[in-house]
Amino acid sequence: MLEAEAALPRATLDADYTARATVTEAEFARIMGLYQSLSDAAHGLPDTRAGLEFCRETGLQLDLFGTKPGELRPLVVFIHGGYWRALSRAQSAFSAPMLAAKGIACAVPDYRLAPAVGISEIIADCRRAIAYLWHNAGDLGIDRRRIVVTGSSAGGHLAAAMAQPGWQSALGLPDQPLHGCLPVSGLFELAPLAASHVQDWMQFTPADLAQSPLRHLPQGLRGALALAAGAGESAGFHRQTAAYAKATGWPVHEIAGRNHFDVILDLAQPETALSRALLDLLA
Predict the structure, then answer these.
(1) What is the CA radius of gyration of the chain?
(2) What is the pLDDT of residues 119-175, one digit of tens each?
(3) Nearest of 14, 11, 258, 281 to residue 152 by alpha carbon
(4) pLDDT per residue over 224-274, tens digit each?
(5) Peptide bond preceding 218: is omega within 30 degrees of 0, i.e. cis?
(6) Cα gap 247→119, rounded to integer Å
(7) Where would I find the H helices in 137-203?
(8) Closest CA to 183 of 100, 83, 278
(9) H-run or E-run covering 280
(10) Could you give the CA distance from residue 118 to residue 148 in angstroms, rounded to a whole number?
(11) I need a labelling partner for 216 at 20 to 30 A (CA). Which of 93, 154, 164, 166 fits?
(12) DSSP state at residue 113
């Protein structure tokens, strides 16, 4: 069980969950630049609706791409990573043009960031975004029967948290509002992270750890997992994906030639293994 990893030496866990150590500073800067430039380009798509407020209490917003008047289109919800403390929807729309070309809409929500809020608040923010999209699907041009959620790293954790049961009725949703889920390089058991450097900014509580997706497995939807292969991903992320795959029975797509940060950029192109995995979930 991944929970037992919390007993490993902190130095080991720090190394296993420091994705930045797998790339040079120059490579990291290049990839972040692509996040931004490709997302900027996505805002030129026809009928883009930016800044839709999905939670009046927090003022949080999402951007919606690829809808078409008079149609109800399948929807991919992309939840950004950044170890729950960085990035935003502004750098996270790079898959929207590829999806739009396939007749698929894409929603990219913001959520509040740590350390200003904890993981429970972050999860709640993302769930409010799902509820907004589901309840307003008709007006937004969304086919609520085909909503797939994906995300990378911390976004992979949050995608899995959207798929787990038990929260939906409080937001007026059916037991499983999602059609599919594709976490990429996700974090599914938080106990090892609470024993690592991540605890410095997350301050996980026992109640937070109890919400780990690996302890609340999804039901009634299609799913798949993905991560960068081999040296492109650190050991902790490999163990997390393997454990969640074993528990869910979902297939794992190991993406060769990519690292923890650029693997998700494969969603900008239609013929990559990662894009095919996502599109298959919507079939």
Answers:
(1) 17
(2) 999 999 999 999 999 999 999 999 999 999 999 999 999 999 999 999 999 999 999
(3) 258
(4) 999 998 889 999 999 999 999 999 999 999 999 999 999 999 999 999 999
(5) no
(6) 22
(7) 137-140, 154-163, 191-194, 199-202
(8) 278
(9) helix 273-282
(10) 25
(11) 93
(12) -
The CATH code of the domain that includes 67 is 3.40.50.1820
Q: How many domains does the chain have?
A: 1
Cβ proximity of 123 and 211 under 8 Å? yes
Q: Please provide residue 79's backbone torsions phi and psi, each rounded to the nearest 5 degrees.
A: -105, 125
Instruction: Please give the Cα distance from 172 to 279 (Å, whole number).
Output: 28
Q: Domain range holding 271?
A: 2-282
Strands (E), the chain: 49-55, 60-65, 73-79, 105-109, 142-152, 180-184, 222-223, 225-228, 252-255
Q: Where are the beta strands (DSSP E) in 7-141?
A: 49-55, 60-65, 73-79, 105-109
CB proximity list for 98: less than 8 A, separation 6 or greater: 267, 268, 269, 270, 275
Q: Which amino acid is at 66?
A: G
